[in-house]
């Protein structure tokens, strides 16, 4: 059969999402997530202005060939915009193939390797008391793993800390509505952070015991030697992982961190290709691959990346913040269930408005997710509900040091 229609949907039920809809000549519909936080319209244009006409009339079953056609065909390769667009096409085609087979996608990826997908929640608080409340709330819901982020003395609002107060369903959304054409700004000081964080981990271990899996995101803010020192300082608190300790584009920076510490390392949410991982994987400089299916070329590319990682004993930790739509999240869950080298899955539940627009089949039970058994990805976009939420320009903040120098956010 052939692809007959290619439509791009932009909706904003609380935050912006870009979703690709592919319809085959016999009426099967597949969905793909193309959301790139703060640059949504660039991917939407890439899809509708450049890829749509290349897709119409193609055989929807030739997923690998379509991937190569879109990746190698245009000469220009990689980058988050291109790879998010290719990812959306790839997800939609897998959705169609699994619907045609009458199976949930994970069956086509080899079937379930586990009963449920262990997820980690985002716990944060402006101070330790608030953070402790948030962790307690997640433990009550059955979570066995939490990512912890907290305010740093001397700094205001910073990455990862909810401004709306602690809780287990707080709306932490770093992309802020753009009022005057420019993003909001935050302030940062790495010395304050490095002095403050180890004490926080010590208190968490004291209050919550040895079993809790503790994760933390450095959000690319440390230099290689700062990250090496930090990873070494926090060894006694047995983190599950330290994420994005140094800027993502410098793969060799992690050699220095590795030389000094056994704290497990995760990186990759800003990566978009297996080539971003070549040094990291072959030299075993990381323990977890953090790519999003949405930003790394879709299911086809992620499966290859994770198989490559498996050879080196490296596991998955797929990116799953709220800027990954429920479609992108479903793609992650099907992979998580099927692959052998699953590590953990990030889970920031979407708000109710988003879940009215995207009807999902995944289920949460005491810290574990399952993608459900609906044929395909198991998520359908309600286009009528989506049309009620108009795109609103929103950007991630820009970060500056206390003296005004622009720093990694
Ligand atoms: C994470 C990420 C996110 C990103 C966000 C940017 O670990 O979940 O760091 O919080 O900042 O996805 O769009
Ligand atoms: Mg992160």
From TrEMBL:
Gene3D superfamilies the UniProt entry points to: Enolase-like C-terminal domain, Enolase-like, N-terminal domain
SMART domains associated with the record: MR_MLE
Ranges of residues in domain Mandelate racemase/muconate lactonizing enzyme C-terminal: 128-264
E.C. number(s) listed in UniProt: 4.2.1.8
Major enzyme class: lyase
InterPro entries: D-mannonate_dehydratase-like, DgoD-like, Enolase-like_C_sf, Enolase-like_N, Enolase_C-like, Mandel_Rmase/mucon_lact_enz_CS, Mandelate_racemase_C, Mandelate_racemase_N_dom
The protein, known as: Mannonate dehydratase
Species whose genome carries this gene: Microbacterium resistens
